[in-house]
Write a structure and sequence with these properties.
single chain, 404 residues, Ribosomal Protein S5, domain 2, 2 domains, 6-stranded mixed sheet, 21% strand, globular, binds ligand DP6
């Protein structure tokens, strides 16, 4: 008998940013946050887990390379928590259930996007790990319950347990049992939401989210203002905007929160800079694009947001993506053609790009090829998927297929 399961999980990009922990071991945040889950058709982590009494110990391979599992590290914590749930919720209740909680596990995980793209993989990675072990252990748990465990792998991972529009409620309890992800709206509520990721080249090694946010907690007074007076209001505003499908309000709050996150990074001692000149020029282009839209219709059409790095994520409704790709390509010429998953450009070529009528071209300078290394067009997506045996990443010997 082979006990094995495979699952995939999505990336999420926050509109209201998580930045700061009140408990670094349990990963309890200093504020609630909210994100959009991106489609797994384009970006995903896939994980296979197998339990076998003949394995010597728990082992994990990420993109074919073995990673150490050392207690009380994040990987070891997640695996131990899931084994505990298997015992309590399945084996203790049904004496005929195989004692999988006592077997070592082999886990192989693969991200379909290159780490070099600078996209955070910890959220989709921990969500896929938790989803595959939950499937292996046949846990009768809701995504919110599983999010409590994914959170202990990486805070933002808890939001990848749902598709659509997802809040991570910070909670108040010391044991973290109320710090979990909840669905604000499913993908089907507002499927027109698209995202364009501008992969910005970055040579220097940045400050990791984990260490950067703790430095901010220790040194930034602005963060305290944000936690107390800004985020609670914005969480309400963005939830209302999503429920009403009000893109203008969604865009306003999303951009304001990205700006404030980077302001608290700058307010950290010593200061942290995640955006670079390219990032700031993309902001200038979106601000001008929105100015033209507001002049014509009174409403914004795009929202930029930046995580702990220089890449831009531009949220917009499907009908505007073509214009925005043309705008970005005009200022950031591309070496490789635009991969066009939604077939916006008949014939496949974007050409030289262009701006919309009334756009002030002087708001940014034109960059060299390579400043924006690539564009990824995707949309709002669904939550983790349990996959069939044909998608398994472990071979018959229980080792990653890529190593065979
Ligand atoms: C800027 O979830 O990567 O992307 O909990 O320490 O693993 P750890 O941090 P992580 O931080 C993400 C920070 C962010 C904002 C967000 O996703 O909400």
């Amino acid at each position: 008998m082979v006990y094995q399961a495979t699952a995939s999980a999505p990336v999420n990009i926050a509109c209201i940013k998580y930045w700061g922990k009140r408990d670094t071991k349990l990963i309890l945040p200093t504020n609630s946050s909210l994100s959009v889950t991106l489609s797994q058709d384009h970006l995903r982590s896939t994980t296979t887990s197998r339990a076998d009494p003949s394995f010597a110990k728990d082992r994990l391979w990420l993109n074919g390379k073995e990673e150490e599992i050392v207690a009380p590290g994040r990987l070891a914590t997640c695996i131990a928590e899931l084994k505990k749930l298997r015992k309590e919720l399945v084996e203790d209740k049904d004496s005929s259930a195989p004692k999988l909680s006592t077997f070592p596990v082999h886990i192989a995980s693969f991200n379909n996007f290159p780490t070099a793209a600078g996209l955070a993989s910890s959220a989709s990675g921990f969500a896929a790990l938790v989803s595959s072990l939950a499937a292996l252990y046949a846990l009768p748990c809701s995504p919110s319950t599983l999010s409590l465990i994914a959170r202990q792998g990486s805070g933002s991972a808890c939001r990848s347990l749902f598709g659509g529009y997802v809040a991570w409620e910070q909670g108040v309890l010391d044991d973290g049992s109320d710090s979990l992800a909840v669905e604000v709206a499913p993908r089907s509520h507002w499927p027109e939401m698209h995202a364009l990721i501008c992969v910005v080249s970055d040579d220097k090694k940045g400050t990791s989210s984990t260490s950067g946010m703790q430095r901010t907690v220790q040194t930034s007074e602005l963060l305290q203002h944000r936690i107390k007076h800004v985020v609670p209001k914005r969480m309400k505003e963005i939830e209302a905007a999503i429920k009403a499908k009000d893109f203008d309000a969604f865009a306003k709050v999303t951009m304001a929160d990205s700006n404030q996150f980077h302001a608290v990074a700058l307010d950290t001692e010593p200061p942290i800079f995640y955006m670079n000149d390219v990032s700031r020029s993309i902001i200038a282009l979106i601000v001008e694009y929105n100015r033209v839209a507001i002049e014509k219709t009174g409403k914004r059409k795009a929202a930029y947001t930046y995580d702990a790095g220089p890449n831009a994520v531009i949220y917009t409704l499907q009908e505007n993506v073509k214009e925005i790709v043309e705008l970005i390509v005009k200022y950031f010429p591309q070496k490789d053609g635009f991969k066009d998953p939604f077939q916006l450009f008949a014939g496949g070529s974007v050409g030289e790009g262009r701006v919309v009528e009334g756009f002030n071209e002087a708001v940014a300078k034109k960059f060299e090829v390579g400043a924006v290394k690539g564009l990824i067009h995707t949309n709002v997506g669904d939550g983790p998927r349990v996959l069939g045996a044909e998608e398994a990443l472990l071979g018959p010997d229980g080792l990653p297929k890529s190593l065979a």
